[in-house]
Amino acid sequence: MEFKSIFTRILISLTVKPYPRELSQDLLQRLAHSPAVALLGPRQVGKTSLALEISQTMPSVYLDLEAEDDLSKLSQPTLYLRDHADKLVILDEVHRVPNLFPILRGLIDEARRQGRQHAMYLLLGSASIDLLEQSGETLAGRISFLELTGLNPLETGEAQADALWVRGGFPQSLKAATEAQSMQWRQDFIRTYLERDVAQFAPRISPQVLRKLWGMLAHQQGTLVNVAQLARNLEMDGKTVASYIDLLTDLFLLRKLPAWSSNAGKRLVKSPKLYLRDSGLLHTLLGIANKEQLVGHPVVGMSWEGFCIENLMSVAPGDTQMHFYRDSYGFELDLLLSWPNGESWAIEIKRSLAPKLEKGFHKACEHIKPTHKWVVYAGHDSYRLQEDVQAVPLHALMGKLKERKLLAQGAISGS
Hints:
Elements lengths: L1 H14 L7 H11 L2 E5 L6 H9 L4 E5 L3 H5 L4 H7 L4 E5 L8 H13 L7 E5 L3 H10 L4 E5 L5 H4 L4 H7 L3 H4 L4 H23 L5 H13 L3 E2 L2 H8 L3 H13 L3 E4 L15 E4 L2 H7 L5 H5 L4 H16 L5 E6 L5 E7 L5 E6 L9 H10 L3 E6 L5 E4 L2 E5 H21 L1
Parallel strand pairs: 1-4, 1-5, 2-3, 3-4, 11-12, 12-14
Antiparallel strand pairs: 6-8, 7-8, 9-10, 10-11, 13-14
């Protein structure tokens, strides 16, 4: 099994050309200002590749805590880590050794007294559960968190946007030689998550039941959460189903998009919407193998909406708040981005090449009063759709969010 794993990694390194990741500069900045950085995200999303790329920029040592040889090096963790106190220590799949966090805390404090303030530890984790709980207790004030999402159109190039939508953002899925090979990779990924990762993080959860729930959620992409109905369909308790949904969220596979609310007395929907975060996994769970099948499937609109939301959030500043809007009259807004300075962007998402705004968009904007109004559509040009509404391609609005993020980072660095 170990030989197979090594062979697979070698094969991947030879066949999958890495993409430049938007997060790399952000990660370097965090390391320059924090003693520890946690890079979180689902398996196979590219965390290890990014960490090894970073390791080329400074003296580093890398440990894969799923490999017995590397794990054995931490049999006396304090001694080993002190021996490498002059390097960046990269700990991959760090959630496998949760008792390491109190030790890291002591070593960070010790190093601070000796004058070292940053770039000590880079922790890679495939889930937020144990890592966030442990670090919240023991590394508060000593650690910075980043999430690595799937590849986005700014990283792959606009020419690959359709392939990215169909296959999803996992590098190995996107770079597969054929649609069939990409589909097979995603099927194997789903099976591995259910059989191994879920058992690791939540051993009492049934992989079979979770697989059914995952499939149900795929069919309900972008809809309001109805836990009671899901529980009836699965013949389970509602609290148990809610815990399964929380697990998929903690594994970075599911996004809960909260409803916007205000104190204006208006009757608003309060339940969140659920989206499978990777469009390729969504399509695999629905048996959609290529774009031709996708454009004729009922999920096409919600698939595109979820794809746009994920990609916009992948480049948004860290202080971005995201919501959707829906009131009791059915007036709805797909996405609302807001920031602490009071600025907000109302975003409608259309798969059409000739988008048209509906009454619900205008009614929602009358209530919210956003500072900017955008319509993300499937075309390539930006133009004014109405006096105060701009139609933009996905990559163009991502570019504007990236500019905002870079300006915020510059302001922080200069302060």
